[in-house]
Design a protein that fits this description.
The chain is an alpha/beta fold. It has one domain (about 5-254): Aldolase class I (TIM Barrel), CATH 3.20.20.70. Helices cover about 45% and strands about 15% of the residues. The chain has helices spanning about 15-30, 50-55, 80-85, 100-105, 110-120, 135, 140-150, 160, 180-200, 200-205, 220-225, 240-250; strands at about 5-10, 40-45, 60-65, 90-95, 125-130, 165-170, 210, 230-235. An eight-stranded parallel β-sheet has the order 7-6-5-4-3-2-1-8. Helix 2 links the parallel strand 2 and strand 3. The longest helix is centred in the last third of the chain and has 19 residues, at about 180-200. It starts with a strand and ends in a 5-residue tail after the last helix.
Length: about 250
Amino acid sequence: MRKKIVAGNWKMNKTFKDAETLLYDISDLLAESEHPGVIVIVCPPSVYLELAVDFAYEEQFRVGAQNLHPDDFGAFTGEISAPMLKSLEVDYCIIGHSERRQYYNETDDLLARKVKSALNHDIIPIFCCGERLPERQQNKQFDVVKNQLREALFDLDEEYFSRVVIAYEPVWAIGTGENATPVQAQEMHAFIRKLISERYGAETASETSILYGGSCNAKNAPSLFAGVDVDGGLIGGASLDAKEFVKIVESFTM
């Protein structure tokens, strides 16, 4: 049975003190909440990863990074690698977020290298895919997502691919207050699962967790997560509020 996952992407937010407070609040609220079987992941800025791991030792969440470099070590000022993340006991890493694609010109080839680096060091990639507004308006969303998966993931062997989490993020809904309707989200998630089935078989497809990302919040999460192929969410702004984030985690019980 595939995993239900809610991952919070803090992006470039919070000072150290604010991050510590948020981790305390998330920890306390998770301890009091009911969310059986849901994997909760916190993805803070890299400077707070060790702090988050310290909290995660005794609490009910895991820790993910927001990015990594495809090489293990080298003269890459300002970068962080999979071996470094693993040495901090980081379990997950977001790869291919639309902001990395847009602002840092990350290509599918580069993302494929990042995914392999993460997997080589036992870090689970949360691989992001999704279309921009003009592509949705031109009804090209399925071609865009298909190409992103094919170019960055589908050369992996089945054993490696089976460890990947996929996050569908309609780019037009990120940070805009807009979100895909439950029907649109389910439609794309079902399409992604069909592509996985065609490439790796029905069993692998049925076990792959596919998350929704794109202005997901406590209000719309229950309807979005009700889709049979929607296995949780990659949460942006709402993950910066502990109460909101934990309510999203609890959406599976509603």
